[in-house]
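This follows on from our talk about sequence and fold. Can you supply me with one protein entry, sequence and fold together? Could you add the entry underneath, on a fresh line?
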Amino acid sequence: MEEGYTRLCLLRELTEGKGKRIYIDEHPVAVFLFSGKVYVTDNICPHQHANILHEGFLEQGHVVCPAHGWSFSLETGNQPGGRWGITSYPVLIRDGVVYTKFAHRKFDW
């Protein structure tokens, strides 16, 4: 295993077009399977700090917050137009297990 990667779940536990909330220590991340590719992002929408992005709907490579409609790229975490949004984390899949290289950080809200 490459250094710095954290095990999240089995690939078979993910459903195409849906998100899954997973906690790394106490930090929630969202894991998505979209168009056959796995993405990992922060799960907290910066609009009102809601821990719900895993419940968002997926369209055109973005997750849309189910509460307020803010949209974030699954690839970069940015909002449309390139504005910063959320963090998107590197993903590694090995032997059917999904890993991410998660960087702990503190929110300044």
Summary: Residues 6-94 form a domain with the Rieske Iron-sulfur Protein fold (CATH 2.102.10.10).
